[in-house]
Amino acid sequence: xxxxxxxxxxxxxxxxxxxxxxxxxxALSRIDAVAVLRCSxxxxxxxxxxxxxxxxxxxxxxECTLPPLRLLTILQRIEQDLGRRRNGQRWGPRPIDLDILLxxxxxVAEANLQVPHLELHKRRFALEPLAELAPELxxxxxxxxxxxxxxxxxxxxxxxxxxxxxxxxxxLVNES
Length: 176
Description:
Elements: E1 4-12, H1 17-29, E2 34-39, E3 42-45, E4 55-64, H2 68-81, E5 97-103, E6 108-110, E7 113-115, H3 124-133, H4 146-152, E8 158-161
Antiparallel strand pairs: 1-4, 1-5, 2-4, 3-4, 3-8, 6-7
Helix pairs in contact: 3-4
């Protein structure tokens, strides 16, 4: 299987948000067919959907040899292991949310997975951290770079936040 560069968005708005993101990052780093390359800074953002606590968001760049649906299954298992319960409320509060945002410039159109993420171009909380990691990356449908998509967005309640545990915008090297 070929290697793909994959960008995954992480979000949390229940409990210790940063700890949830760190736990998800650690779980991602334990996947055999995945290497975590870099992490964005953390961003505090207003929720989309019903009234609920603010989110803490980040994006991680991965090198992955899994097919997209297999990675999605693993991400959903990580969410479940970290306390996420799918109760039918769309965009409700959750301890962790993991979304595949972009997959090496490819399109994935499956019943339960759409890549690029269908709402990516509308969401500053995903584009701001993604722009830290890959500003020149092109959206395979819209043909614009991440930086261009970000420039087109109206202001949204998203602000960068300092981290206490999160490895901000630093390359991660797995040395054994």
